[in-house]
Every structure is written in C-alpha cells, then in structure tokens.
Amino acid sequence: MHFSLRIALASLATHKLRAALAMLGVFLGALALTGVQHMSLAMVRKAEAEVEKLGPNLFMARAGQIRFRRAGVGVGADPHTFTLHDAAALASGMPSARTAAPFASRNMPVRVGDTKVLCQMVGTVPAYQQVRSFRPEFGRFFTEQENEESAKVCVLGRTVAERLFRRPEAALGREVYFFRAALRVVGVMEAKGADIAGTDQDEQVFVPLATAMRRLGNQDYISGVYLELAPGADPEAAKDTAAAILRARHNIGPGAKDDFAVLTAKDTIQLQKQALDLVGVLGLISSTVSFAVGGLGILSIMILLVRARRLEIGVRRAVGARRSDIMLQFVFEAGLLSGTGGLAGVAASLALVSVVYALGGFPPTYHPLVITGTLAGSAALGLAAGAYPAWQASRLDILTVLRNQE
Fold first, then answer.
1. Computed over its alpha carbons, how large is the radius of gyration of the chain?
2. Contact between 98 and 115 (Cβ < 8 Å)
3. pLDDT-based confidence at 405, cuts 50/70/90?
C-alpha cells in the first residue's frame, strides 16, 4: 500500500496541470458548500443575537402583511387601517401585555442647512425606550407632556446625528427640518445597529407620536404597536388573542385575509431562517453540481491515465505486482486528486468567510461537522470516480500490453 501511494504521488507530481484541472470541479464544490453553509449559520447566529436588541419579551402588531425583502424581513403596503384605538384595545385586551408603545413610521428627509439625510421618522411615545431597550446616549428622550402637546422636539439616531452635525453631542439644542417643520433636538440615541428586520436603527429620528400624526403626517392612522409581554407569557396565546381582537375591530370575516401582522422577535428570526434555508438549499444544489462535474472530470482523467500508462502497468505486473496493487495505485491517485481539491476548496472558503465575518460584523462561526463532512465527501467522491478506471487497469492482460509495445 505504501509503495502504491508513492507511485500515485509521483504520477500526480509529473502531470501537475492535468491534476489541477481534474481537481477544479471538486475545489469549486467544496468552496461553495463550505462557504454557503458557514454563512447561513453565521447569519442565523447574528439573527439570534439581534433578539436582545429588539427588547425583552417583545411583541409587535402592525398594519400590512409580512414579506421578504433583500435586507431582511419587511411588510407589504400599509393599508392605513391601524389606529390608536386598535393599539389601546390590544394593550387592554391582552392579559400578558405590560407596556405598549404605538408608533407611526415613514421615510422622509431631514435637513440642516444644505445638508440633507434620508431617514426613517418614527413617531412614538416615551415607553418606546423600555419596550425596545433603546435609550439616548446624549440628552434625553421626549416626555409624555411633550407628546400630549405635539411639541416640536426630536431625538436623532446616532448615524443621523453624525451626518448632520459630525459630533453627536453637537446636535443637542439645534434645529432640524422635516420639509418646512423645524424640530429642536433634545437627544441622540445610543448606537444600536440594524435590527432583525434589516432596519438601521441608527438612521431613525424619533418624534412624539402626536407631533408625527398632526404636524408632520396629518394622519389618523399609525403603523402599529410594540408591546412588552409579561415574563413567561405564552407568545402563541398572545398572538391568537391579538389576532382575534384586530379581526373583530377591522370587521374581517371568516376566511378573509388579515390586513395586519402579529409576531414576536422569535417569529421574525424564524422568517429569516426560512429565507436562509432557501439559500442553503440553492448552495447545496450548486455545490452538488460542481462535485458531480469534478467527479466526472476525475473519472475521465483516470480513464485516460490508464490508457496512457498501459506499459507501466504491464511492467509492474510482469515484475510481480498484483492486481490489487494496481487497483490501489489508481484508487489512491483518484482519492488524492479529489481530496486535495476538497482540502483546497475548504481552506479557501474558510479564508473568504473569515473576511466576510470581519467586514460584515457577523459572529465567527466555524462548524467542524461541515468541514469534516466536506473533506470526507471530497475524498469519497474521488474513490468512487477512480474505482472503475482502477478496475480497468487491474484487468489489463500483461502479454497483450507488452506485445503491443514492441
């Protein structure tokens, strides 16, 4: 066996280009499989970590239906049917609800002088800080009295403050403009990053809900309500209760489609996992195709090698090599081709995902089972692809081979 392995290594070293081309398909398959699986795992872990940013025991009911979008989980068109009375009915009608924070959001530009920044304006109430675990780093949040008076005040997200004033603390006491409406900055929120839905919370501007509805939006509807559930509350029971309340208030008959969505932070993670599962399946398909191409490449290369090395095989048989020795030699060559390609693909994939982890802020995730499984699969593919050529080589007739070489 040791001698057969040495011959296999010598043969591959002699035909480097041919060996590299044979390994290419396996390399690409291992690269795709390892990379996609590791990125999917890292994204799931990041999603789970984002639960903490959404607030403890968070529950959300909002207008529109949930859909997927490229940046994460989003909602469809807002039907403008969700009202403050709906939010109050949920807060009073759900036994597990402890704190409610209705909100109205829309994308609009905020301006200081000639500097304009597109942001998400969020009208809400002071309880938003508690429900979403999100508080000012500089200054303060607006008060309940300021909300009741529709005060012209706002709290900037960290990124918005930096873009408008460079230094976040410099924003305090200054005025920003939503179109022609001037609002005084009373606080700057702590850096929070993107939430599980893909919304960058540092690019939001928070204003009193009454101010958003009367002064900025001239509307009588809201986008939805965040609710903090009691510790240990059953989220499924809360969803059923909320859905029943909203269907009754919106006069939605049996079998009719909801014009709202109710979900918890874990539901949002589950939605993202479903999207990631699809990505994983597509990655598995692409890597399987690459592995199949690589296996066929190794098979064809090994068949050509058997034909090109008939004399070598005949000489080895003539000096005492057994058929099993010939088979081992060619099986080793095929296994080395595939295993080396798989090893190179896994190494390149881990290097690439490490760079993506660092640049994208993903938690470093390396799954030993994925790595070892890919390596084992690569080697097994080579052994399977080399079995038939090895069998062919072992069945060559010594006298016929030597006679044809004369």
1. 32
2. no
3. low
Assigned token pair, 189:
């929120």
pLDDT the model gives residue 192: 84
CA-CA-CA-CA torsion sign (252, 259, 269, 350): positive
What is the dihedral sign for C-alpha 235, 241, 245, 247? positive
CA distances (Å), origin 179, targets 109, 199, 223, 392:
7, 23, 21, 80
Is residue 3 predicted with pLDDT exceeding 60?
no
| Same domain membership, residue 213 and residue 112 | yes
The residue out of 237, 258, 279 marking a domain boundary is 258
Confirm if 176 and 111 have CB atoms less than 8 A apart.
yes
CA atoms within 13 A on the CB side of 209: 22
pLDDT value, residue 328: 77
Domain of 370, in residue numbers: 2-48+271-404
- For 12, 153, 205, 293, 382, the CA distances from 302, given in Å and listed in that order, are 11, 75, 65, 14, 10
**106 and 254 part of one domain:** yes
**Tally of structural domains, the chain:** 2
Give the tokens for residue 398.
């010594």
CB 293 within 8 A of CB 381: no
Q: Are 206 and 314 contained in the same domain?
A: no
Section 254-269 average pLDDT: 81
| Tens digits of residue pLDDT in 122-136 | 999 999 998 988 899
Q: How far apart are CA 303 and CA 306, in angstroms?
A: 5
- Please identify, among 197, 224, 258, the residue that sits at the C-terminal boundary of a domain: 258
- Token readout for 183 is 């609002």
**pLDDT confidence of residue 276:** 63
Pair of tokens at residue 404? 């044809």
For the chain, what is the mean pLDDT? 81
Query: What is the mean pLDDT of the segment spanning 355-381?
Result: 85
- Using DSSP bridges, classify how beta strands 181-189 and 153-156 pair: parallel, antiparallel or unpaired: parallel
